[in-house]
Amino acid sequence: AYNIHVNGVLHCRVRYSQLLGLHEQLRKEYGANVVPAFPPKKIFTLTPAEVEQRREQLEKYMQAVRQDPTLGGSETFNSFLRKAQQETQQIPTEEVVLEVLLSNGQKVKVTILTSDQTEDVLEAVASKLDLPDDLVGYFSLFLVRETKDGGFSFVRKLQEFELPYVSVTSLHNPEFKIILRKSYWDSSYDDDVMEHRVGLNLLYAQTVSDIEHGWILVNKEQHRQLKSLQEKVSKKEFIRLAQTLKYYGYLKFDPCVTDFPEKGCHVVVSAGNNELNFQVRLPSEQIKEGSFKVTRMRCWRVTSSVPMSNGPSGSSPGKSEVKLELAFEYLMSKDRLQWVTITSPQAIMLSICLQSMVDELMVKKSGGSIRKMFRRRVNGALRRSDSQQAVKSPPLLDSPDASREPMAKLSSKLTSVSLRGISHSSSANDMGANDFHGNYAFEGIGDEDL
User: Fold this and answer.
1) Distance (Å, whole) CA 395 – CA 242
2) Are residues 373 and 264 in the same domain?
3) 231 and 336: one domain?
4) Span 89-99, pLDDT tens digits
5) pLDDT score of 431
6) What residues does the PX domain cover (predicted)?
7) What residues form DSSP beta bridges with 110?
8) Other C-beta atoms within 10 Å of 62: how many?
9) Most CB within 10 Å of its CB: which of 263, 281, 333, 395?
């Protein structure tokens, strides 16, 4: 069997014959000219070299399917991954109670089936909270890890090809939780959400929580005003004031390392307002702050690597730490592009944030509406609207050959991943043409911008 990893976590194990079955079903539904070529069957037993060759071909096949907007978003493909996830984790279909957290720590218990997909669970939570149908799409379920100080570290946004109950229970760690948060970036959409009592309460709880955790910056006078509005239970006014504060609507990430402005700088990255904000601690201990606009990023990619057994390794012997990096190429000035790398276990979540900011910008440019962007009912079943490219994280396959040198494989955004030893640099010259994800919202800088 081949291990399929999605976002760095074992999603499922599948056999060649199961993947061939998926391929035949996709061909039947979409036609042979749409579906990529599938690695051929072999009559004789495969040699170790052929086994590895087949794994690579299957990996490319799965990525090609996932990257195709029609195939990757199809129910056939997504239900295949969900079913395989359930079978691999050996969780039978039964009714269970799943706990979903709100930003203020309140627990919402929903009765679902273990086989319910992300959209079903989101619906169940919304229904329990009395959140109206047309506001459900403004929120998403996120997998988070509880930190020692009572805060949260974001792992990823739950996707359409997974079963939330199986995803969280298969981690066998009570620190992992599912949380409901708003999933848009433009704070003008807050107005839609605040029209309804439940939407207003959810937004208010999230804003209070973000202020308490220090994600939103507040000075003494603003703190006094917020406290007074809180005492009066003026929730809308509280949110309106919070919207004017620094880092409102941003997701804050755990401290990590960047190579900008120089190698090995410690940084706190926040994502919001169509930018990545850096608070960098320079080697001189000086703190500098700056922002990278998503519209100035020409492309980005996520890579993973593990220390080579014979290469330099920062970790103790015998312990292979997966190292994740997000690298983006940024237009620093009119004719100067530069790669900036962030080394963080949350690289995939950062990448998903960038992608969703681009999606939102593109929908606005085309005059689309956010309500339509998120949801559309087709024959009673919920479907993503065509106006939003769903975030695609292609699954990758591990070698079934246990004696092979352990090389971590991980998904990048819409693309393949280049696998390299930690000793290699992340520079433009080691990037293959298909290694990165191009950004459709990229805008050049004109003279008047400089």
Assistant:
1) 39
2) yes
3) no
4) 999 999 999 99
5) 37
6) 1-88
7) 98
8) 24
9) 395
Cβ contact 2:58 at 8 Å: yes
Q: Identify whether the C-beta of residue 160 lies closer than 8 Å to the C-beta of residue 80.
A: no
Q: At 256, phi and psi to the nearest 5?
A: -145, -160
Residues 91, 164: Cα–Cα separation, whole Å: 12
Q: 118-165: per-residue pLDDT in tens?
A: 999 999 999 999 999 989 999 999 999 998 877 889 988 998 899 999
Query: Which whole number is the average pLDDT over 316-321?
Result: 46
Strand (E) or helix (H) holding 327: strand 323-333
Give the domain extent around 359.
250-305+323-377
| Closest-CA residue to 416 (of 438, 400, 395) | 395
Backbone φ, ψ for residue 312 (5° rounding): -65, 140
Same domain as 259, residue 342? yes
Give a yes or no: residue 34 inside a domain.
Answer: yes
Alpha carbon 331 to chain centroid, angstroms: 24
CATH of the domain at 244: 1.20.80.60
Predicted TM-score (pTM) above 0.85: no
E strand spans, 95-217: 95-101, 107-113, 139-146, 152-157, 176-182
Is 183 within 8 Å of 356 (Cβ atoms)?
Answer: yes
Look up the CATH number of the domain holding residue 140.
Answer: 3.10.20.90
Tokens at residue 449, please?
A: 């911008």
